[in-house]
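Second attempt. The first submission of 40S ribosomal protein S15 had a stray character pasted in from the spreadsheet, which I only caught after the job came back as garbage. Lesson logged: always re-copy from the clean sequence file. Corrected sequence (208 aa) follows.
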Amino acid sequence: CLGLGTYPSLNECCPPPRACVLAARPLSDTTISDNPSSFAFRDTVERRLTGISAKMADTEYNAEEAAEIKKRRQFRKFSYRGIDLDQLLDLSSEQLRDVVHARARRRFNRGLKRKPMGLIKKLRKAKQEAKPNEKPDLVKTHLRDMIVVPEMIGSVVGIYSGKEFNQVEIKPEMVGHYLAEFSISYKPVKHGRPGIGATHSSRFIPLK
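This time the job returned cleanly.
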């Protein structure tokens, strides 16, 4: 190897060709030693520095790529059967009737009675009296079969469950559903340990 003539001990321990290139570099007097362990230490340090620089480059690249992806990303907009929320609020009753599912369409064709219209008027009044950037007051109702219409979005309704009024905020995803779907009338069963008489061994306990 070129450059190794003055260091015969390094010529024996360095495998070509990487060792020849590293040994040919100008080294300071403090790092040059006849002991082969000094060269191995320098080689290890260089490898570690190379790995650290590569990791830093990958981190910077990933950070830039993540920033671009975040910038391009847009929040998912709500749409009901292909209609945006702004357009949905502007629909007339006839246009809304043609958009909703068949069960609600048959209901609208028969016409809304006095009680559903009274609920809509109460919700409308609560919205008008609400302060800016605040939720409207709670409006309680027993009409569990009321179909959610776009005009009700943003209102707070207390839906009767048969025992109490469950407070529900009407959201765009609820359009076309019944109010009863958001206030269940039963308590979900959570099975615990079996009671007496549930198993064969506990059916009959003889008296002593």
